[in-house]
Structures are given as structure tokens and as C-alpha cells.
Design brief:
Layout lengths: L19 E13 L3 E8 L2 E8 L5 H5 L6 E10 L14 E12 L16 H6 L1 H4 L3 H23 L3 E2 L16 E4 L7 E4 L4 H9 L4 E9 L12 E10 L3 H19 L4 E2 L5 E3 H8 L13 E2 L10 H6 L6 E7 L5 H13 L6 E7 L5 E4 L1 H18 L6 E7 L1 H18 L7 E2 L1 E5 L4 E3 L5 E3 L10 H4 L11 E6 L2 E8 L4 H10 L4 H15 L6 E7 H8 L30 H7 L8
Parallel strand pairs: 3-5, 6-9, 11-18, 12-19
Antiparallel strand pairs: 1-2, 1-4, 2-3, 4-5, 7-8, 9-10, 10-24, 13-14, 14-17, 15-16, 15-17, 19-22, 20-21, 22-23, 23-24
Amino acid sequence: MHAYRSHTCGDLTAANAGETIRLSGWVHRVRDHGGVLFVDLRDHYGMTQVLADSDSPAFAAMEKLRAETVIRIDGRVKLRDASLVNAKLPTGEIEVYATDLEVLGAADELPLPVFGDQDYPEETRLAYRFLDLRRESLHNNIMLRSQVVRSIRNRMWDQGFTEFQTPIITASSPEGARDFLVPSRLHPGKFYALPQAPQQFKQLIMVAGFDRYFQIAPCFRDEDPRADRSPTDFYQLDLEMSFVDQEDVFAAIQPVVQGLFEEFGKGRKVDTEWPRIPYAEAMLKYGSDKPDLRNPIEMQVVSDHFRGSGFAIFAKLLEQDGTEIRAIPAPTGGSRKFADRMNAFAQGQGLPGMGYILWRKDDNGQIEAAGPVAKNIGPERTEAIRQQLGLGIGDAAFFLGGKPEAFEGVAGRARNEIGRELGLTDENQFKFAWIVDFPMYEKDDEGKIDFSHNPFSMPQGGLDALNGDPLAVKGYQYDLACNGYELISGAIRNHKPEIMFKAFELAGYGADEVEKRFGGMVKAFRYGAPPHGGCAAGIDRIVMLLADEQNIREVIMFPMNQRAEDLMMGAPSEPTNEQMRELRLRALPKE
């Protein structure tokens, strides 16, 4: 017999009754039933119930077991009584009577339990991640992640893509986040960078004459953490294609992503119609460039109904240039209690509140409008708003005003909150949409023109488009939104040097700087570059959605905490003096 096991803890069934077997695993829990001890023995594959009574040679050793001790047991497989069968376990028809037991790895007192699903502080969970990973839900999430990655690879090969690997140590590249820099020992004072994405390399692969590339690529960005974003590194499905337009990229990636969600979505409906929504329309209707389309609410501009009205706050606001009033319809939300809850939500977002109108039935059975807004603008304007929004008795509308860029984000979050509160959002499905026609440029906080998206994108209209107002230029850039998350970002690339130089010039990069920072790619484009484009899909975020998790750290095996620290391995750590001397670096004292 094998030194450690003849079967795994998920193998044994009624067909094995009467056999002498050997199992190894972790002690999930021990139960004492008055002279009979039961151990739930767990390994990667499942759980088996082991028992010993006072006649068993293993009884004395089993009495001393502590949870999470690793043991090897020999025993006989017995059928359970029909009344004791556990239908939830594949091994639930049998149990193993232990005849021998050996402790392979003793366990100290646990800093957090593995049995059960108790909530524990995240700092403790991350410091003892190897224990946390033994817990069933997290173990399942990590296995799901592995299965998703395998499925992605198979689907990409089936779509005619070839997998290549690109460098991890490279040069700095503007991808919208801070680089992680790596000092060079051989070139003192110079630094490599960990790639924020394989952007330039995958474009060079196209220039080199390969056609359909993909990679499960690690990416490194020094970012502030969020629930749906890692602060240090993440993995993406990276792909690029030659001789394609935007629709070709969409057609290539949709079967991959749709197939993943159909395979691992636990039976939830997967939307097969993926609309194309222009960025400006997405911001207007949903207040977000990653809208949750499970929620049917669409915001509308209602400025004309408030101009010159008795609602002074909005009327005066509309006298300023660039301002507007938007309404968020709230079907079935026409109660004062709901309005109060939404005002509390708005105040939590830093606003004084939201204006609202409630539509009710009056004493004569007719529809009437209630609320401060309705009283101030009068019945004619109120009715016009109701007609525009398509609302009726029992419904409500909430209002936000100002310059769109100042309130769109809050309006989008309010739309999501209203959809959840009123049960309008269908939680049992995945709905996708391509967000297209992104603006190529934006103004930063200092009023300077900068890229709003990927700097290597082709502007719509080519070189001619760059001769006008930069803020009016749209790029061949696109994102895929699903249930309120951005899953994919991509673009048709700018493969012509003259357009590339002009595009960077508008963002404040001179020709010399472009040559210095992107010299390899500029040089390559001078030797016959094909039109090309691609995208990248966030694997961590995809798995988070499939696993029904709200925090991305629940689907990453060894994540950092909110302060970008690895509490288990002690990173970041201070280098030794010898390391610093080798690199010719000196650390400045903390301020």
C-alpha cells in the first residue's frame, strides 16, 4: 500500500464497503459521542468521516488530535445506517473505522478556524492566508479561478490565437498608473519597470508578422486599492490582432467571454446581445462608463421643465453655462419613506439631498404630484416631467443638477441604489455592453490636455481629427461593461508614426520625448506596420463576478492588503545595506 494514501478523501463510495484503505489529510473537526470519536478528514478532493471506538487501536491517538493536524489513517470502509447517510457529501454513504493513525504534521492552536464560515478580520486572514485558503469557500474560489484560466486558454486557441510570452523587466510606459521601478545593478542610476501591461510588446508582435496573439499576462501597477482592484499586480487575458477593425475584435472576444459566463455562471442567464453604447450616452443615461444594465432605469435631461420655474435652486443653476438637470425615474418608489432613504443616501455621498416628486392618487382617484419640487414648479411642469419619464401612480423621480462632470458619478450611484432598493435590478443574470467612442483627451486638474484612455489608440478621423479641438476627438477605444464592472478595455491602435507624433504632441509630449520613451515602437512603425487592435480582459474581476464575491481579494490566492502589504511574507521590507551598496542607492529618511 502507498505510504500515505490508497484513496483521496473524496473517493470512497458504497462500492468500497469492506475494503481496507489508507487516507491522509487534515483534521477538519473532532466529535466525541460518548466513547465513540468521529473525525471529519479533509483533503483537496473532499471529506471522509472516520470513527474509532474504545476497541480501536487508533482510539488513544485520536483523542489527542487538534483541528488542522495532518494525519494518516488506516481503516475499513463501512456503510452508514440509512438514517445517517449524508446526501450532501459524495462520501456520505460510508465511514471509515480507523485501525491505525499516524500524525504527519502537528498543528498549534489556530489563529482562525478553518471549520465553518465565520467572519474574521481581513488582517488576520491575510497574515495566515495558508490557513484561510483551507476554508471551503475560498478554496472553491481559487479552484474556480484555475478552471476559468484553463477555459480561457482553450477558447483562445479554438479562436485561432497563439500564446506568446512578453518580458516582465522592461521600460516605463504611460498606462495611466504609477510604475513599479526596478533599479539596475549593471547600470547604476538607471531603472527598469515592471510592465503595467504588455501594450508595446503585443503591438510589436503584430509588426513582426504574427497575427493573433494572446497571453495570460501579469500586470503591475502601483495603484490605490479598491474592492474590485488589486493595489500591486493582477492578471489579464491580453490579445492583439492584425488587419482588423473594432467589430472584428468584438466578434473574436465575445464567444470567449460569453462562453466563460455560460460555463461557470451557475445557471444565471447570460445576455447574448451586447449593445454598443457611445460613452456620452452611457454617462447621460447611467452616470457611468461601466453601467449595470440589469437595472432598467435610464436617466433623462429635464432642464427645460425647470428653466424659469418657481424651484429657485434649479432655475438659478440653469442660468450658468454648461449646467443641466437630470431626472432619475423610480418606478414603484412613490413613498415618503423611500424618498427619505434616498435623501439619506445622497447625504452620505456628500450632497445636501436630492429633489424629488412623488405621484399618488388623490381623493377623486386622479393622479397628483407631491413633494417640494412639485409645489414649486406647479402642476403643468410636473405633468410634463411625468409624461417625459413615462411614470404613473406609485412612482417617483429624483433630480440632480449642475455641471454633468460634477454630479454624474453620484447620479450613477443613486441610479444603482434606487434599482437595488426597489427590486428593479435582476440579480440573476449577466448583462454586457460595449462602451464605444471614448474621448481621446481630457483636461487634468490643472487644465492641461492629457490622454483620457490608452495613448496608443487611433483617433477617429486620423490625422485630420487632430487639427481641431482635442476635446472633440474620439478614439477607436472601447470597454466591455458587465453588471456595473469594467471587464475589458481595448482599442484599434495608432500604427502610423505621423499620427502618433501628433497625438502625443497634443498631450504635451514632444517628438524627442516620444522617440526617447517609445523609440522601439516608433522605429518599428517605420518598417511596415499593419493596422491592428486588441483588448485585455481582467481575469481577477471576471472570477469575482462568477464567484459572487464583492471583493477581489476573495479570488486571489495571495493578495495584498489595503495598504499594499503582504502580511504573510512581510513585504515590502527594508533592503540590507549590502543590497543598497550594490545598487548604488541611498534611502532618504522618512519625512
